[in-house]
């Protein structure tokens, strides 16, 4: 009836108003967070299963919100990307992660590498290469200690510019991983043209990998593809022994996931480096 439609409409608009207000509040809180540096970097270990060693860490940002506590990146990174705040946040993460890696190198963990997630908007910044190189210089790290994790949507968005920037990164020795590999909409052809060092098997393909026929097929294919292209391959989201057995049977020995360690504070990760992970 007309009445009902009217009510629904009313309900809907007031719902939207509330959302928009929340949105405005959220955005201003995010600006404040950048000013006040309310972010923290957590680190998740990447391990070589054969040696049991932690070979690297992935830097994962959190927002330590004064009232809400630790807010996960899924809640604010997409918005930060939309409004451009990903640029200062991303640079802060890059610098913080490199400084922390230097601290670990100084503690004697000299082979440890760090991986940092770079969003499309950040990658399009003309001065990203310069920023990264200055941070490496400031912190005294080698380019080979740093890996940038990019998603396939970066490649679709701006093919020529992306190719050029990637080549410059590779020429300077920085590694490039394709994150969430297989979940994007790009064609495989880019693997020929782009100077990629690593494929990260998306964790969705490892779900029930021992029983899910499609996932087994896809994960196997990605690992084989990486091996045939002489790229490094790492599996993310490893949570159980069945997944480990599967990965080892395919020759994929680099792993990352809750089984070995959740994203954790720098202090906690230092302890893990000292104690070692269980494999
Ligand atoms: P991602 O790069 O794919 O990071 C992996 C996500 O999977 C992390 O979520 C991590 O906590 C989670 N994870 C790791 N191991 C397991 C596991 O065994 N099981 C399950 N269920 N999950 C696991 P997180 O930290 O919430 O980050 C979410 C996403 O936010 C990241 O996905 C990345 O796209 C983005 N992100 C995080 N930090 C940054 C950053 O500094 N810059 C940018 N641009 N994006 C970031
Ligand atoms: Ca990542
Ligand atoms: Ca290294
Ligand atoms: Ca991922």
TrEMBL record:
Highest taxon, organism lineage: Bacteria
Domain EAL stretches: 23-277
Protein name from the UniProt record: EAL domain-containing protein
Residue span relative to the full protein: 658 to 936 of 937
């Amino acid at each position: 009836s007309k009445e009902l439609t009217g009510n629904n409409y009313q309900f809907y608009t007031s719902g939207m108003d509330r959302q928009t207000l929340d949105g405005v509040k959220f955005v201003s809180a995010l600006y404040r967070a950048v000013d006040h540096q309310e972010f923290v970097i957590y680190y998740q270990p990447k391990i070589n299963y054969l040696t049991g060693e932690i070979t690297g860490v992935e830097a994962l940002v959190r927002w330590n919100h004064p009232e809400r506590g630790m807010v996960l990146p899924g809640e604010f990174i997409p918005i930060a990307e939309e409004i451009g705040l990903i640029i200062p946040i991303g640079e802060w993460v890059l610098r913080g992660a490199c400084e922390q890696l230097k601290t670990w190198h100084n503690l004697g963990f000299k082979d440890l590498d760090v991986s940092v997630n770079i969003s499309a908007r950040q990658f399009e910044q003309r001065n990203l290469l310069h920023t990264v190189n200055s941070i490496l210089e400031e912190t005294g790290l080698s380019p080979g200690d740093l890996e940038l994790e990019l998603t396939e949507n970066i490649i679709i968005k701006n093919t020529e510019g992306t190719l050029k920037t990637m080549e410059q990164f590779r020429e300077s020795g920085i590694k490039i991983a394709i994150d969430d590999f297989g979940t994007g909409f790009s064609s495989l052809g880019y693997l020929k043209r782009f100077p990629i060092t690593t494929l990260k098997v998306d964790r969705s393909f490892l779900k029930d990998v021992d029983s899910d026929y499609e996932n087994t097929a896809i994960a196997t294919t990605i690992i084989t593809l990486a091996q045939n292209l002489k790229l490094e391959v790492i599996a993310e989201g490893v949570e159980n022994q069945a997944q480990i057995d599967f990965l080892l049977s395919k020759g994929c020995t680099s792993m990352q996931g809750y089984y070995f360690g959740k994203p954790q504070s720098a202090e906690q990760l230092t302890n893990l480096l000292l104690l070692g992970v269980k494999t």
